[in-house]
Amino acid sequence: MENKIKIAIQTKGRLNEDSMNLINEAGIGLSVGRRTLVSEAKNFPMDALYLRDDDIPQTVADGVSDIGIVGENEVAEKSENVVIAKRLGFSKCRLSLAIPKSLDYPGLEFFNGKKIATSYPGILKKFLRENNIDADIHVITGSVEIAPGIGLADAIFDIVSSGSTLVSNRLKEVEVVMKSEAVLIANPNLSKEKKEILDELIFRIESVQRAQGKKYILLNIPNEKVDEIIRLLPGMKAPTLVPLAKEGWSSMHSVIAENDFWEIIGKLKKAGAEGILVIPIEKMIF
Ligand SMILES: Nc1ncnc2c1ncn2[C@@H]1O[C@H](COP(=O)(O)OP(=O)(O)OP(=O)(O)O)[C@@H](O)[C@H]1O
Ligand SMILES: O=P(O)(O)OC[C@H]1O[C@H](OP(=O)(O)OP(=O)(O)O)[C@H](O)[C@@H]1O
Ligand SMILES: [Mg+2]
């Protein structure tokens, strides 16, 4: 058996760039496959197959590729036998029912006897069945939001992110059916060797994800303020403290969440910190 893993990546579209970036940040050299639809990683036992996202769950289930990066919505729609090996945190969206803005919404019974346009008939059918709603599903592959406006359907079921496509088409979101993000999926019957390669990939992805939104901070502090400042900056285990050449001062190094940064910085200055440097972190390994 070949000691290499095959990963399916979307050829072009919303998932492509973030998928390629993630693989590259994991230290794996993959060239972009616009025309070559298969490429070999330079320094990792992996080949990439570039496919339409619709085809990725089936390709992974059949073992044509071993793993793949795809939206959770496609995984749910296709109901193929694959496992979610890692949630990836990008391409976040939801799948929602929406109706014309001008109509009152009494609740799910609104959809009884109505026609709903969607590119996700599998997920919608299951949702309607579970809620005892009898509606007619009209499948279209794109531009779903224009369906009510042109008299093709009474309502839609589609991807919503910012909601601006709904607003432009005078629709309102009335039910969120599922939340989705990009996921790394895997064939459930990988060989031991391929499973080991997948585990190494997941380990690298987790190191990259951990570093996202985190900063390395260095600051000079008066020694008598060490305890007070440690309480503000707990760090990974404990902040590193190095004596400065200047008597009575130390340099402190730690990690902070980017979101907490502006709040903490004010408190640090108040406590007497000086020369504060904030530096990006590429990877974090525990
Ligand atoms: N507006 C959005 N915001 C965030 N994520 C989105 C948005 N639209 C789609 N996605 C996610 O990205 C995935 C891919 O979207 P894209 O529009 O590239 O699909 P596609 O047109 O079906 O591509 P393909 O040509 O590969 O079939 C979707 O399945 C969904 O998970
Ligand atoms: O809530 P919003 O932020 O407006 O995003 C939702 C829209 O994004 C996607 O379409 P996309 O922009 O990929 O266009 P396409 O499906 O027509 O290619 C999706 O099909 C929705 O139409
Ligand atoms: Mg598609």
TrEMBL record:
It is found in: Cytoplasm. Pathway: Amino-acid biosynthesis; L-histidine biosynthesis; L-histidine from 5-phospho-alpha-D-ribose 1-diphosphate: step 1/9. Its main location: cytoplasm. Gene3D superfamilies: 3.30.70.120, Periplasmic binding protein-like II (3.40.190.10). InterPro entries: ATP-PRT_HisG_long, ATP_PRibTrfase_cat, ATP_PRibTrfase_CS, ATP_PRibTrfase_HisG, HisG_C, N-reg_PII-like_a/b, N-reg_PII/ATP_PRibTrfase_C. It catalyses: 1-(5-phospho-beta-D-ribosyl)-ATP + diphosphate = 5-phospho-alpha-D-ribose 1-diphosphate + ATP. GO terms for biological process: L-histidine biosynthetic process. This is ATP phosphoribosyltransferase. The lineage of its organism: Bacteria, Pseudomonadati, Bacteroidota, Bacteroidia, Marinilabiliales. The gene is hisG.
